[in-house]
Every structure is written in structure tokens, then in C-alpha cells.
Amino acid sequence: MRRATYFFIFLNLSLALFEEPAVYPLPFLATSVLEVLCLLVFLGRLTHFAKVTQHNVFWKDTKNICIMVAILLSLTDLAIYGVLRLYDVRSIRWSRIVRPIFLINFAESRQIRRAFRSIRNTLPEITYVFLLFMFSLLMFSLMALKLFGERNLQTAEGLPYFRNYLEIVFDLYVLVTTANSPDVMMPAFDFSSWYALFFIAFVIVNTYIFMSLFLAVVYNNYKKHLKVMPGGACD
């Protein structure tokens, strides 16, 4: 039963690779039949669990409620999507985001739930570090707007350079990962090599300090919650 449950959970999650927009597209009928099969298996597994569990215990367990709601949402979305396809109306399968619920809430996924709850308990404690990072990012973006926005600089593609605040925030956010380095600073560097100091300071503060601090806080709090969480709490 456990292996069968894991197989159909994996199959249900894998359907995202074959549904539009897909990596390997399959006909809608094929993916919908497979999804209905998975949902029937999940419903049968839930029904079997209800038969061997006391009625009041079964309905008080939020995991069972989550599974039933996920099945209902998936079937509703599948029916709506199928009807819209008959009338050549483009739509998306919004219910795909609920599919991980099956992975988390079945009784066999105790360790996954334990990790998920540790992550959930860690999030409030890393909020302050995240807010500090966002404040630093917004302040550096404002400085960049004041430094470069009035100099009519252009990118290599001839586009305006650092004149829109939201675009600056996004570009500097990407710079935290160094994915757009050093391209993002080249228009300013070509105008004056001294402007490289701004980007060097940004990388030191946000990439080397804040990201290291953020990672340390996440790791330490996650490890703390993972250790203190009792085994019974995962049920």
C-alpha cells in the first residue's frame, strides 16, 4: 500500500511535465485519464483509512480534510478546463499547485511532514533578517536611481539604464546572485570607473554579508526545530 501510494503520488506530480504548457506534451485525454486514476486511488486510500479509524478521529485530522479538499479542487479544475477546451477557450490548470498536498498529508509521508513543519516554524524567525536584506536592497536601489538615473546612460542594447526604480530593484536583486555580473554595471563603469565602487559595496553588503547571515539563520533555526520536534507531533 505504501509503495502504491508513493507511485501514484509521483505519477500525479509528474503530469506537470506532460500537460500544457509541457516539456513533453501529451494529449489532454491521456493526462486527464491518468489524473483521474490518481485521484481515485487517493480517494480509495482515504476511504480505506476512514474504515479503520474512529469516525470522530478521522474528521478531526486536518490531513484528511486537506486531501479531500485537494481531490475536490483537482476534479473541479479538470472539469472546467475540459469544458473550456471544447469551446476553444484558453485557460490554465490552476489546481496543479495543490498536488504537493498529497505528498505531505498521507500517513506514509511522516518524515516529509516533519521537514515541512520545521520549515514552517523556521519562517517567522528568519523574517527579521529578510526584512533587513530587503531594506538594504531598496536603499541601494534608491541610491542607484539617484546616481545613474539623471545621466541618460544606456545599456548595450540601447535601453535606458537605471531610470525605473522597480527595474533597478529587480536588477540589483539578480546581482545578489551574481548572475548578471559584471554586465549590470558596465554602462556606469564606461561612464566613470569610480562607479564600480557602488557595485562592489553592494555585492559585499548583500551577497557576502546578508546572504551568509540569512543562510546561517535558516540553517540554525531549521536544525533547532528538527531536533526539538517530538516524533508523535508529526502524526
UniProtKB/TrEMBL annotation:
Specify the Ion transport domain's residue ranges.
Answer: 6-224
User: Which InterPro entries does UniProt cross-reference here?
Assistant: Ion_trans_dom (IPR005821)
Transmembrane parts of this sequence: 26-44, 65-84, 126-145, 165-182, 194-219
Q: Which residues form the signal peptide?
A: 1-16
Q: Which GO terms describe its molecular function?
A: monoatomic ion channel activity
- One GO cellular component term noted in the UniProt record for this chain: membrane
Q: Which Gene3D superfamilies does the UniProt record give?
A: 1.10.287.70
| Main subcellular localisation | membrane
Membrane-related topology note: Multi-pass membrane protein
Compartments, as annotated in UniProt: Membrane
Keyword Transmembrane applies = yes
Its domain of life?
A: Eukaryota
Q: Which UniProt keywords apply?
A: Membrane, Signal, Transmembrane, Transmembrane helix
Name of the protein this chain belongs to:
TPC2 protein
**What species is this protein from?**
Orthonyx spaldingii (Chowchilla)
Phylogenetic classification of the source organism: Eukaryota, Metazoa, Chordata, Craniata, Vertebrata
Gene this chain is encoded by: Tpcn2
